[in-house]
Specification:
The structure holds two protein chains of two kinds. By secondary structure, chain A is mainly β. Chain A contains no helices and ten strands. A four-stranded antiparallel beta sheet of chain A has the order 3-10-5-6, with no helix packed on it. A four-stranded antiparallel beta sheet of chain A has the order 4-9-8-7, with no helix packed on it. Chain A has a two-stranded antiparallel sheet with strand order 1-2. In chain A, strand 7 and strand 8 form a beta hairpin. The radius of gyration of chain A is 21 Å and the shape is elongated. Chain B contains no helices and eleven strands. In chain B, a hairpin with a 5-residue loop joins strand 9 and strand 10. Chain B is an all-beta fold. In chain B, the strands form three sheets. In chain B, strands 4, 7, 8, 9 and 10 form a five-stranded antiparallel beta sheet that branches. A four-stranded antiparallel beta sheet of chain B has the order 3-11-5-6, with no helix packed on it. A two-stranded antiparallel ribbon of chain B has the order 1-2. Chain B has two domains: about 30 residues, no CATH class; about 120 residues, Immunoglobulin-like (Sandwich). The chains are: A mainly beta, B mainly beta.
Chain lengths: ~140, ~150
């Protein structure tokens, strides 16, 4: 039984002859599967120090892929933005003296979030909400 | 045959639902389907600390590619094997001397038949802004995940 599975093509495309770019689903290839998702808040001092917090633990045994959205500190407007940005990102002004950075990262056991900002405005404490998704590595499915 | 396809509802949800979030799979909406992972090793040395690494692919369309990067060897070691989503900047803890500022950047662009990884790990002189390589070598791995989705289709 070498040739088996499911294909679903886009409307108007012949599932027997179309290219894979015209398939909505092809069971030969795995879908991206979610391991876990969640939200959190990081509170830190607005002094450009490194603030590194645990977001989530996992037991996958490898470094997973993930996506991360976070509220951020707008160094142009010198105020917290309540919109969500896709991280990582790094903004700087004045040769790096004014800065905001958001760097989530994953290890073999954890998803962590390192964040910092500074504008010299005298603001001391900032709280940012974030959303994360950890995926199973689809390469491990093959 | 206007209405056809396949639906799989989440546990406790009904396949008569019209809410996308109630489904694990609904063929009306394409899912992110993984095709291939390519891993590329990039070494930063005293004589080579920026460049573009070309990674060819063999698809007849412009695929969705999501890239991650990790420093796998080099000091400081406590930053090693941490995976960052690209584009990634200033993430590996590499230091320069007092008179230089470290600039680290890994990003990528997708071409018709390849992906270009554009990378640099340099020390910038804070006086004249000239650039030089860090003293210590480091090795990075870039992971490119190719998905079965024609960008813009």
């Amino acid at each position: 039984m070498a040739d088996y599975g499911i294909k679903i093509s886009k409307p108007g495309k012949d599932v027997l002859t179309c290219g894979i770019e015209d398939l909505i689903y092809y069971s030969k290839y795995p879908l991206l599967k979610i391991k876990s998702t969640g939200t959190g808040t990081i509170t830190y001092d607005h002094d450009d120090a490194s603030n590194d917090v645990l977001v989530a633990t996992h037991s996958l045994g490898y470094i997973p892929i993930f996506t991360f959205l976070t509220q951020w500190y707008d160094i142009d407007g010198d105020a917290k933005s309540t919109t969500y940005r896709h991280a990582p990102f790094y903004d700087s002004l004045a040769g790096g003296a004014v800065v905001t950075r958001a760097r989530p990262y994953a290890s073999t056991t954890e998803l962590r979030y390192e964040v910092g900002s500074y504008t010299g405005s005298g603001i001391t404490s900032i709280s940012l909400d974030y959303i994360y998704v950890i995926y199973y590595d689809p390469d491990a499915d093959l | 045959m206007a209405d056809y396809g396949m639906k799989i509802a989440k546990a406790g949800k009904n396949t008569s639902s019209t809410t996308i979030g109630d489904y694990s799979f609904w063929s009306k909406y394409p899912s992110l389907t993984f095709m291939e992972k390519k891993t590329v090793q990039i070494s930063v040395t005293g004589s080579g600390c920026s460049g573009t690494t070309n990674v060819p692919f063999d698809y007849d369309f412009f695929p969705l590619v999501i890239g991650y990067v990790a420093k796998t060897a080099g000091n400081p070691t406590d930053y090693n094997n941490q995976k960052y989503l690209m584009p990634a900047n200033e993430f590996a803890g590499i230091s320069c001397d007092l008179f230089h500022e470290q600039s680290l950047s890994f990003t990528y662009q997708i071409n018709d038949d390849s992906v270009d990884i554009i990378w640099s790990s340099i020390c910038i002189d804070m006086g004249d802004l000239s650039e030089e390589c860090p003293v210590e070598n480091a090795t990075f791995e870039v992971y490119l995940y190719f998905y079965m989705w024609e960008m813009g289709s």
